[in-house]
Write a sequence for this structure.
């Protein structure tokens, strides 16, 4: 029996392709995957509605109470950044769903086949999530400013005072991005939507409540009460309401939580099969 030319060609090993997916193309693919999900659009819509609506309600309440409630102590910037305590949950959930959806559908295998450098995949997804939340928060803050300004009238924004306006607004933008990255990190770690969302919500919302309950325990539980200052939500609240107080500590706390989650997610992504 003779071996045909076609059989010899098929048996001959092929040279590995020199084509490599560039980082810009990788970011484009991550953008496409994120914004083709309906959950992304719903999350962003809920974020805008919550932020603008709560800012409006706070401004209206303080305006109706007048000086007797110390209206001047709650400046318009505080009204704009106050919804952060609610929208942080949406940001964290969005970050978690940005990756866990790929694991549930098996798309992560296609992503890692197209780009075997797993760290690049994580970095591209983190960049896309960060830019998305930054852009959304900037637009939302602008809308809230426009809505709140007529209510405060003469007691409006003091744009010349950066400590009372620009700095808190800037930290609100950064905080929303870090909350989303925290959820993304847990998504890479757990690889399950429900588990990643539960972990994110637990850190951002449940854990602060649990820790605050020990304030009735006396000095023996003071170490646990002090833990409250090292939670990401409390650091964000301090930076957006009183940025001059313990700024260095709060910045480290705010950035350390998502950084630790992403490093852990990167380690799991490298060592475990998709």
């Amino acid at each position: 029996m003779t071996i045909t030319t076609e059989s010899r060609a098929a048996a001959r090993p092929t040279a590995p392709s020199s084509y490599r997916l560039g980082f810009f193309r990788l970011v484009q693919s991550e953008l496409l995957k994120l914004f083709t999900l309906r959950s992304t659009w719903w999350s962003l819509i809920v974020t805008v509605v919550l932020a603008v609506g709560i800012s409006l309600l706070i401004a209206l309440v303080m305006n109706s109470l007048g000086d007797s409630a110390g209206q001047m102590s709650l400046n318009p910037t505080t009204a704009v950044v106050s919804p952060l305590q609610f929208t942080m949950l949406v940001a964290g959930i969005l970050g978690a769903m940005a990756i866990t959806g790929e694991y549930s559908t098996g798309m992560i295998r296609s992503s890692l086949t197209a780009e075997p450098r797993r760290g690049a995949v994580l970095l591209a997804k983190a960049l896309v999530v960060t830019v998305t939340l930054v852009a959304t928060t900037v637009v939302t803050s602008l809308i809230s400013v426009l809505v709140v300004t007529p209510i405060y009238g003469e007691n409006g924004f003091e744009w010349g005072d950066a400590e009372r306006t620009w700095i808190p607004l800037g930290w609100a933008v950064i905080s929303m991005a870090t909350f989303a990255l925290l959820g993304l990190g847990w998504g890479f770690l757990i690889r399950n939507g429900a588990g990643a969302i539960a972990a994110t919500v637990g850190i951002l919302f449940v854990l602060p409540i649990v820790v605050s309950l020990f304030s009735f325990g006396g000095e023996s539980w003071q170490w646990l009460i002090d833990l409250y200052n090292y939670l990401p939500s409390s650091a964000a609240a301090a930076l957006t309401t009183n940025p001059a107080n313990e700024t260095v500590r709060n910045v480290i706390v705010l950035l350390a939580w998502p950084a630790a989650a992403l490093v852990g997610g990167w380690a799991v992504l490298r060592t475990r099969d998709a």
